[in-house]
């Protein structure tokens, strides 16, 4: 029997946990193309992968009878059985290592780690085995494993379960690192990830599981090599990924109400970064704001800022702005947690700093972070 490790003091207390309504209405209801949730889209992606390729199996803590800590795999055990949906013991190093071994043997494992902080217990397996074996074997040993994990804060899970360590993994050669931010990407990133001969890490932001979106009937596998422009604009580029995308889009709405046109770029793939799409946007708008839930020091935002400075110095009309989490262990108290995280108001303020007073509105007046003239 698997012992449940819940990422919070009380199971079901927070929207991000798997019990109650947060785990979904039930496995029998499959989302049709159209309106669905991020969680259901991810579940359907797993279901499709299991159906179409007998080499695919899901493994992790509580992915079977419990339906996954965040309800993503709810109902898959009943549909595919314990050989394909495998509950693992509480040892990340062991079951991630088993997934790597299965990939080396020709399988296509999907390994679920409850939250990103637990992945640190398997970091040796990910860094020293999955990411290096192809290189160290002279190209003889590809490791086609997909490792999924929940990331990010905003759910009052305190300092031990609120990390955003995507930048750490994006630092490692040999890995592909993905951050689906939309329902469509949650549904359609898994298939190309499983087809990749290299190990792929998929970061699913916990605040996104309950969000809803439209799933186009004609949507297909995601191009993992390219970022996506989620909103076109002309005055400033907002660059972000994962759980910060809705905040960047909200900030763009607020900026638009003040006469500022913001383009929003969703990175989608954090390693390798799509320099062409990001740089092309900045070459058009001449200003950049990077929104990253990771800590500012040594962050993914720092890497993107450095690349823009190296590649687009003469396109920039202002220094690159970064909006990151406060460099503190994430607080539990709701108001303190909100204050520690990037928020739309802070993104708006950074964008207005980048464009300067003359571009802050048709009248040339400066504005505060709420968009009011000041």
Fold blueprint:
Layout: E1 35-37, H1 38-52, E2 56-60, H2 76-80, E3 85-87, H3 92-104, E4 108-115, H4 116-119, H5 123-130, H6 133-136, E5 146-151, H7 166-170, E6 176-178, H8 183-188, H9 190-195, E7 200-205, E8 212-214, E9 228-231, E10 236-240, H10 245-257, E11 262-266, E12 269-271, H11 275-285, E13 288-295, H12 300-312, E14 321-325, H13 334-340, H14 344-355
Parallel strand pairs: 2-3, 2-4, 4-5, 5-7, 6-7, 10-11, 10-13, 13-14
Antiparallel strand pairs: 1-8, 6-12, 9-11
Care to describe what's here?
- With 374 residues, the protein is α/β, with parallel strands linked by helices.
- It has 14 helices and 14 strands.
- Strands 3-2-4-5-7-6-12 form a seven-stranded mixed sheet, with helices on both faces.
- Helix 3 (92-104) runs parallel beside helix 5 (123-130).
- The chain starts with 34 loop residues before the first strand and ends in a 19-residue tail after the last helix.
Distance between the termini: 62 Å
Helix content: 25-40%
Please list the strands of the largest sheet in the order they lie side by side.
3-2-4-5-7-6-12
Outline type: globular
Averaged pLDDT: 89
Total beta strands: 14
Q: Give the count of helical stretches.
A: 14
Distinctive features:
14 strands, alpha/beta, 5-stranded mixed beta sheet, disordered N terminus, 374 residues
